[in-house]
Specification:
Elements: H1 16-22, H2 29-33, E1 36-39, H3 52-60, E2 65-72, E3 78-80, H4 92-95, H5 109-112, H6 125-134, E4 140-145, H7 154-164, H8 167-170, E5 173-177, H9 180-189, E6 195-199, H10 203-217, E7 220-223, H11 233-242, E8 246-249, H12 255-263, E9 268-271, H13 274-280, H14 286-293
Parallel strand pairs: 1-2, 1-9, 2-4, 4-5, 5-6, 6-7, 7-8, 8-9
Antiparallel strand pairs: 2-3
Length: 296
C-alpha cells in the first residue's frame, strides 16, 4: 500500500458536534465489534515496518489482520517490503552502495539477508504466515501483491505458499492490490477468498469508475481517505454499501479520526497505530497496551 500522510485537514469540514462526540469514549460497542482493524505493515508507527517486532506487537494487541506487501527475489522467494527497492527501508547504502536503487527482483535472498531494517532482518512472506498461524490470537493476513507486473504468476505462488502452510484453514486471508489485473487473477484462482481493490483515485473517479470495477472483481474497495471530504463521507459510505461492498480506508493514524470513521459505519481501516485503534474501540485500555508493548 502506498504511503499516505493523512492528517485531520482532510476532514477539516467536520461539524463541531461530530468531532466533539468522536473525542469521547465510543458508546456504541456494536460498531466497534464489527469494525476491522488492519495493522498496516504491522505496528509500523512504533516499530520498523514489516518486521517481526511490528507484526508480533500488532498480533499481541488483538489486531484483526496483519498487512504486508509482497515482492519476489531473484531466486523465487517471496519477501515482504513496501517499496520496489530497499533504498528507504534498509541499510543497503552501506552494504551494497552501488545497488541502492536496484529492484528487489535483482537480489537473491542470501543477499537480502545481509540487509536490515533498523537492525532487524527482512522477512519472508512465510515468516509472517508463521506468526499469524502460531500466535494464540491467530490474526488474519491481509496480503498485497505489490507491483505484480514485475512478478508474473506471483498470485498463484502466494496461494500455493498459503495452502502449503495450511493458512486458509487456520487464519482469515484477504488479498489486495492496486492492480486490477492482479485482483482478477486472485478471483480466478481462489474466488472464495475476499479481495480488496485499492485505489488512490480522486473522488469523482472513485465513485464513477472504481466502485463499479470493485463490484465486478472484488469484495471491497480500499480508497485513500484523503480524497474524501468530510461532507462527502456519509454519501460515499452509503454508495459503497448499497453496491454490496465493504470499505477499508487507508491510512489513518489519528485517534479522533478513527472514532469518526467508526461512528460513521465504515467497515475498517488500515493503520500504522494499532495501539490507538484498539484503545479507541475499547478492546484494551492504555495501561494494558503499555504493558503489552513494554516487552519489545
Amino acid at each position: 500500500m502506498k504511503t499516505s500522510l493523512l492528517i485531520l485537514t482532510a476532514f477539516s469540514l467536520l461539524p463541531f458536534s461530530t468531532t466533539h462526540a468522536a473525542q469521547k469514549k465510543l458508546a456504541n460497542t456494536d460498531l466497534c465489534s464489527q469494525f476491522t482493524i488492519i495493522s498496516h505493515r504491522g505496528l509500523s508507527g512504533l516499530f520498523p515496518e514489516e518486521s517481526k517486532p511490528a507484526y508480533l506487537a500488532a498480533a499481541d494487541l488483538g489486531t484483526d489482520y496483519l498487512e504486508m506487501d509482497v515482492h519476489r527475489t531473484k531466486d523465487n522467494i517471496l519477501i515482504v517490503n513496501h517499496d520496489n527497492s530497499f533504498a528507504r527501508t534498509t541499510n543497503i547504502s552501506s552494504i551494497f552502495p552501488e545497488r541502492v536503487n536496484d529492484l528487489i527482483s535483482t537480489f537473491t535472498f542470501d543477499e537480502i539477508s545481509k540487509l536490515s531494517n533498523k537492525g532487524v532482518p527482512i522477512l519472508k512472506l512465510e515468516d509472517v504466515i508463521n506468526i499469524a498461524i502460531l500466535h494464540p490470537l491467530h490474526p488474519g493476513l491481509y496480503i498485497e501483491s505489490k507491483s505484480p507486473e514485475l512478478y508474473p504468476g506471483v498470485e498463484k505462488q502466494m496461494i500455493d505458499l498459503l495452502e502449503s502452510k495450511g493458512a486458509f484453514k487456520t487464519v482469515k486471508v484477504y488479498f489486495q492490490s492496486f492492480d486490477l489485473e492482479s485482483i482478477k487473477r486472485f478471483k480466478e484462482l481462489r474466488p472464495e477468498i475476499p479481495r480488496l481493490y485499492l485505489t488512490d483515485a480522486p473522488y469523482s473517479t472513485l465513485t464513477k469508475v472504481e466502485i463499479p470495477l470493485a463490484v465486478q472483481y472484488a469484495n471491497g474497495i480500499g480508497p485513500n481517505l484523503g480524497v474524501i471530504k468530510s461532507n462527502k463521507l456519509d454519501a460515499f459510505l452509503s454508495l459503497v454499501h448499497q453496491s454490496k461492498l465493504i470499505v477499508h480506508f487507508w491510512t489513518v493514524d489519528d485517534q479522533n479520526l478513527m472514532k469518526v470513521l467508526i461512528n460513521a459505519h465504515a467497515d475498517g481501516i488500515f493503520t500504522n497505530r494499532t495501539d490507538l485503534l484498539v484503545e479507541a474501540c475499547g478492546r484494551l485500555n492504555k495501561p494494558e497496551i503499555t504493558k503489552m508493548l513494554s516487552r519489545y
